[in-house]
Specification:
about 20% strand, alpha/beta, TIM Barrel, 10 helices, single chain
Length: about 250
């Protein structure tokens, strides 16, 4: 899906094309966004900014996705965009844009902010697999490679079982925020053939190696994405691991 097998994880209101360009020497993919696509998620995002959260709130979210990915067309990494929606039409349009840029459309089933969950987006989708898999089918049907960003430690949610449903719906990848349960990555990796990106606490060789040992295909770096020392160490670990797999 991308090499080196290191990604930048989306950071609300911060992860734009310029942010990705700065780290392009270290990563194979950058998840921009997240972006609220429809009226319900935009209203939630606007309320969240009242609490001093950063959010992207352009007048035309899909055009923003197009412009941002276009700014990465000449950069040696794979673009991706994390999106939040409660309706399928905007997901389909954003997925078509991602398809045209050979970028990944990432569905956000991860945001745990109260406003976004109350709207039925973000983490709320983990408890509504029918709605989540409908978004996956819609995005895949538009021709995009599809990732789903999920969160561990959500009460009542069996991530390996959910991963199988996401896989069956046509997704290509699952981006797992392991929280403090790193071993959940192994359960997801064992349950599905999805490309597994592990996230949370990746700060260097040791943490990256741990996720690869649990079966992750790639790791992503969030808050440390502006630290070249961290990114360099993680890239070296990912490159070494891939070389070992290739040579057997």
């Amino acid at each position: 899906m991308f090499r080196p097998r290191v990604a930048l994880a989306s950071l609300s209101g911060e992860a734009d094309a310029e942010w990705a360009r700065v780290a392009a020497d270290y990563v194979g993919c950058a998840f921009l966004g997240g972006i609220a696509l429809d009226d319900a998620t935009r209203a939630a995002a606007e309320t969240m900014t009242d609490r001093d959260r950063s959010e992207f709130l352009p007048a035309d979210p899909v055009a923003f996705v197009d412009a941002q990915l276009g700014d990465l067309d000449d950069v040696a990494l794979r673009g991706a965009f994390n999106v939040r929606s409660t309706t399928l039409g905007p997901v389909e349009r954003a997925a078509a844009v991602c398809r045209d840029h050979d970028a990944i459309l990432e569905l956000n089933a991860h945001c745990r902010q109260d406003e976004m969950c109350a709207a039925g987006a973000g983490e709320a989708l983990l408890r509504d697999p029918e709605a989540l898999t409908a978004q996956v089918r819609t995005a895949a049907g538009a021709g995009a490679d599809v990732s789903v960003k999920v969160r561990a430690e959500v009460a009542g949610v069996d991530l390996p079982s959910l991963a199988r449903r996401i896989d069956d719906a046509g997704a290509d990848a699952i981006h797992v925020d392991a929280m403090d349960s790193e071993s959940v990555v192994a359960g997801v990796a064992d349950a599905t053939d999805l490309f597994v990106v592990a996230n949370n606490g990746v700060r260097g060789r040791e943490t990256a190696r741990e996720y690869f040992d649990y079966g992750a295909d790639a790791v992503s770096v969030g808050r440390a994405s502006d630290d070249p020392d961290v990114l360099g160490a993680v890239r070296e670990t990912a490159t070494d691991r891939l070389a070992r797999e290739v040579t057997g």
